[in-house]
Amino acid sequence: MALLDTATTAVPVGGPELPQERRLVTELPGPRSAAILARKADAVASGVGHTVPVAAVAAGGGVVVDADGNSLIDLGSGIAVTTVGNAHPKIAAAVAAQAAQFTHTCFMISPYESYIEVAEALNRITPGDFAKKTALFNSGAEAVENAIKIARKHTGRQAVVAFDHGYHGRTNLTMALTAKAMPYKSGFGPFAPEVYRAAASYPFRDGLTGPEAAARAILQLEKQIGADNLAAVIIEPIQGEGGFIVPAEGFLNAIVDWCRANGVVFIADEVQTGFARTGAMFASDIFGIEPDLITTAKGIAGGLPLAAVTGRAEIMDASHSGGLGGTYGGNPIACAAALAAIDVFENDGMIERAREIETLLKDRLATIQQNDPRVGDIRGHGAMIAAEFVDPETNAPDAALTAAVAKACIAQGVIVLTCGTFGNVIRFLPPLSIGDDLLNEGIDIVAAALAAVAR
Ligand code: PLZ
Q: 203-260: per-residue pLDDT in tens?
């Protein structure tokens, strides 16, 4: 069965040449998407959900085109992955060339240069002016799992601390690290042992300064777990799924200092914040911290599955030879894509573009907030910006309003994602290849959707 009846619909080629416009030719889903989604319901496990009810056929610049010819404004980048832009020409070319050369040997069997080049690039561009090493994996969760393995081996200790509102993945250990039961954990236990949780810094909700929030967390680490038992502390420098929570100034620095003083490995999970997304190459750079280990994925390879753990050479080398790996980790096609993507991040003005997007989004959202106190907080860095929706009287999270606004935006052809422990945050994660016109049009639609939901 063909995916599309190509006799009647020409499938557009993706990439930046796609018409950069919002265009709705049907209601969403249109008939072709509806038919494909009906097959999804029959063939794909129900646990695998979807947010936008269309079947994608092409994407690039700032749009996603569906099977019916609708063109949607992309403010999600497939959850912060297509940061350089979908079907970026340099990535498409690198992937095609490598696929014609060889598709796989297994790096643990016959190594190849591109894996090593990715490691060299990550050792160079991640924060910290010290000797580093890297190991490559397939997904963010797998990188996190391996960072914990390495930290345990290095310290000879077992306990790991993650934070309130943290998200680190859906595998067993990373579910344990993740702070939110629904939809990520409920019914999927038992979870990995020796995982503990500390209080995070959430300035909009806790009102604490960075040092105050850090003191609260450090008290928990010392009294509930004991530094001598603790292998690693893992935190997202800006918490992603938990609500784009930017910690108060000084919070991360105090935690890093405490870890260093106590021989605890500090792991920054930059799977969502990495690679120019936040207007810096890594969010750790914004806060002036130098993690011992850093986990990356998502934006690293422009949409190909690749992930990494990078960090201090003496920690990365803790494992016996053969202790780290996997069949596909550092697949050559993914490595070719990553080298192309890192070239774009470093040389094509991506960091500057992320900062421009921050200014545009924050200005527009601030105007909306002035007229509507249900927008409780606007926060974030670069092209990772969020609005938190509340009951203006009590500041209580308003998940129903958030869901209604997001649904209305999607129906109008604007892909927005929600997040937050309380489900009351809309996050904006546009590809850095999007133009200002589409960004503005997207925010116009968010504003109209908000205005349309009665106060
Ligand atoms: N660490 C900080 O953001 C992935 C997951 C969405 P994988 N976030 C999006 C979902 O519902 O599954 C993420 C992250 C941080 C780790 C991960 C996990 O990365 O590549 O999804 O395994």
A: 999 999 999 999 999 999 999 999 999 999 999 999 999 999 999 999 999 999 999 9
Q: Which atom of ligand 1 is nearest to the CA of 239?
A: 2
Q: Could you give the strand order of the β-sheet that contains 414-415, starting from the edge strand earlier in sequence?
A: 56-60, 63-66, 71-74, 414-415
**Cβ-based neighbours of 72, under 8 Å, separated by 6 or more:** 22, 52, 54, 63, 64, 65, 66, 410, 413, 414, 415
What's the burial of 132, exposed, middle or buried (CB within 10 Å: 0-12/13-18/19+)?
Answer: buried
Pick one of 3.50.40.10, 3.30.300.30, 3.40.640.10, 3.40.190.10 as the CATH number of 90-347: 3.40.640.10
The pick from 148, 241, 244 for probing ligand 1's pocket by mutation, whose C-beta has the most ligand atoms within 8 angstroms, reads 241
Question: How many angstroms does the Cα of residue 275 sit away from the middle of ligand 1?
Answer: 15
Output Rg (C-alpha) for the chain, integer angstroms.
22
pLDDT digits (tens, 9 = 90+) for 325-373: 999 999 999 999 999 999 999 999 999 999 999 999 999 999 999 999 9
Give the whole-angstrom CA distance, residue 77 versus residue 118. Answer: 22
Give the other-Cβ count within 10 Å of 299's Cβ.
29
Nearest protein Cα to ligand 1, atom 3? 272
Residue 42 exposed, middle or buried by CB count within 10 Å (0-12, 13-18, 19+): exposed
**Nearest Cα residue to 425 out of 449, 447, 402:** 402
How do the domains of the chain map onto residue ranges?
Answer: 31-88+350-452, 90-347
Contact partners, residue 437, CB within 8 Å, separation at least 6: 20
Say if residues 99 and 92 touch (Cβ distance below 8 Å). Answer: no
Cα 72 from Cα 20, distance rounded (Å) = 9
Before 247, cis peptide (omega within 30)?
no
Type of residue numbered 149: K
Superfamily of domain covering 31-88+350-452: Aspartate Aminotransferase, domain 1 (3.90.1150.10)
Distance from Cα 240 to the centre of ligand 1, integer Å: 9
- Residue 176 CA to ligand 1 center (angstroms) comes to 14
Atom nearest to 270 CA in ligand 1: 2
140 pocket-lining for ligand 1 (C-beta < 6 Å): yes
Label residue 314 by pLDDT band (50, 70, 90): very high
Task: Look at residue 10 in the predicted model and tell me its pLDDT.
Answer: 77
How many angstroms does the Cα of residue 274 sit away from the middle of ligand 1? 12
Give, using CA atoms, the residue closest to atom 9 of ligand 1. 79
